Amino acid sequence: MFGDKIKAFAQKKYGADKHLAAALGMSPQQLAAYTAEKRKPGFEILQKLADLGCSVSWILDDDKTIDELNNSFNLVKGKSENNGILDLSGAIELSNTPASRLAQLVGVCPATLDSWRQGTATPTVEELSRLFNQVVALALSSRHAATTQATAEPETPPAQATG
User: Fold this and answer.
1) Which of 20, 96, 115, 158 sits most deeply, having the most CB atoms within 10 A of its CB?
2) Is the pLDDT of residue 51 over 80?
3) CA-to-CA distance for 84 and 63, rounded, in angstroms?
4) How confident is the model at residue 78 (pLDDT cuts 50, 70, 90)?
């Protein structure tokens, strides 16, 4: 049963087993041993799956169905209020940073950020956290700079020398 769940997670989040295998740092053949239930995942594999956003309790609980996988994602395309599209326009405006620079600060390529906006990819919890932290830091920095500039004393022109 856990093999089917690992396979379902791979399909749901990564589109293919080989992509999950790469994210786990293993070969597709090693992952196939888990999905075929020839090997049982140990703590290290379960931890890596959890880090990738998979509910370990869902994998290990025989009573939970594959349909419950959708509940482990907040932004599964077509299952959320915004149809899986992450609205980044407010974040970009608030951070006062171009999308390409924001992507770089978050540690993803601009195409990945764009795919989140279009709903063709779903960010991990870690990626969302980094995005949130960067937007807040940039917004606070921008606000601090504006406040400091506004409260600075106006410059007075130098006194004219009289002869």
Assistant:
1) 20
2) yes
3) 27
4) very low
Q: Give the per-residue pLDDT at 160.
A: 61
Rounded to the nearest integer, the mean pLDDT of the chain is 75
Q: What is the pTM of this model?
A: 0.42
Cα 55 to Cα 6, 12, 48, 51, 113, distances in angstroms: 10, 13, 11, 9, 24
Distance CA 20, CA 13 (A): 8
Residue 49 near residue 59 (C-beta atoms within 8 A)? yes
Q: Convert the chain into a string of H (helix), E (strand) and C (coil).
A: CHHHHHHHHHHHHHCCHHHHHHHHCCCHHHHHHHHCCCCCCCHHHHHHHHHCCCCHHHHHCCCCCHHHHHHHCCCCCCCCCCCCCCCCHHHHHHHCCCHHHHHHHHCCCHHHHHHHHHCCCCCCHHHHHHHHHHHHHHHHHHHHHHHHHHHCCCCCCCCCCCC
Q: At CA 68, angle to CA 62 and CA 69, rounded to 5?
A: 100
**If phi over 0 gives left and psi between -120 and 50 gives alpha, with beta otherwise, what is residue 26?**
beta
Closest CA to 71 of 5, 116, 118, 127: 5
Q: Reply yes or no on whether the pLDDT at 84 is more than 60.
A: no
